[in-house]
Amino acid sequence: MTGPILLYAEPLWDSPYVFSAFVALREKGLPFEARVLDLKRGDQLEPDYRDRSLTARVPCIDDRGFFLSESLAIIEYLDEQFPAPAYARLLPAGVRERARARQVLAWLRSDLQALREERPTTTMFFERASAPLGASARAAADKLVRVADQLIPSAGGALFGEFSMADADLAFMLHRLILNADAVPDRVRRYATVIWGRPSVQAFVAQKRAR
């Protein structure tokens, strides 16, 4: 590998998808540099970036001229391009565990919309929410907590025995509630807090954010 990977992000550093790509790179121990695109200004629509990223979105990585956007694709690519044991795994080794992790990652990106709307990521990194959850958001929160409680091992720890990106993304979603002082059962809160304390996650939390 020659030269660092480039990670294209957005100025607020509050995207859950940029979070996934950032944490994946940190967990792999790969050198990378961040390039910030001003989405409001339309930097992502500049022809060079638009055409090379295909979807004109962030996150996107540039690995020695190979551009790849969409966070799930980035996770899969990094795990295959920089495999264990030389690099840390981002997905579990077992076929069924890996399938379950992918299920969790896909679900977190496609469900719980009401919770996203009432506890947007701005309430995690800037100004906390002031209103209680409405009925739809509360139902989404209950579903999130129920799924987390089913997945967390009885003895605690990572979902599949060792950390995976499913842990990172699940903890991120749970922190929409935790950071806004919404009710979360102790067992689920403990799990999410431990994952949130990982160095890769805390490095994202500590990012300088423009507002």
What does this 3D model show about the protein?
The chain is α+β, with helices and mostly antiparallel strands and 211 residues long. It folds into two domains: 5-88, Glutaredoxin, CATH 3.40.30; 95-200, Glutathione S-transferase Yfyf (Class Pi), Chain A, domain 2. Helices cover 50% and strands 9% of the residues. The protein has helices at residues 16-28, 47-53, 71-81, 95-110, 113-118, 122-125, 135-151, 165-178, 186-196, 199-205; strands at 5-9, 32-36, 60-63, 66-69. It has a four-stranded mixed β-sheet with strand order 2-1-3-4, covered by helices on one side. The longest helix has 17 residues, at 135-151. The radius of gyration is 17 Å and the shape is globular.
CATH class of the largest domain: Mainly Alpha
At CATH's second level, what is the architecture of the largest domain?
Answer: Up-down Bundle
The helix-strand sequence is: EHEHEEHHHHHHHH
Individual helix count: 10
Instruction: Provide the low-confidence segments as ranges.
Output: none
- Describe the strand arrangement of the main beta sheet, using strand numbers: 2-1-3-4
Shape estimate: globular
CATH topology of the largest domain: Glutathione S-transferase Yfyf (Class Pi), Chain A, domain 2
* C-alpha-based Rg, rounded: 17 Å
Number of domains: 2
Task: Summarize this entry quickly.
The chain is of the alpha+beta class. 50% of the residues lie in helices and 9% in strands. The model has no long low-confidence stretch (mean pLDDT 95).
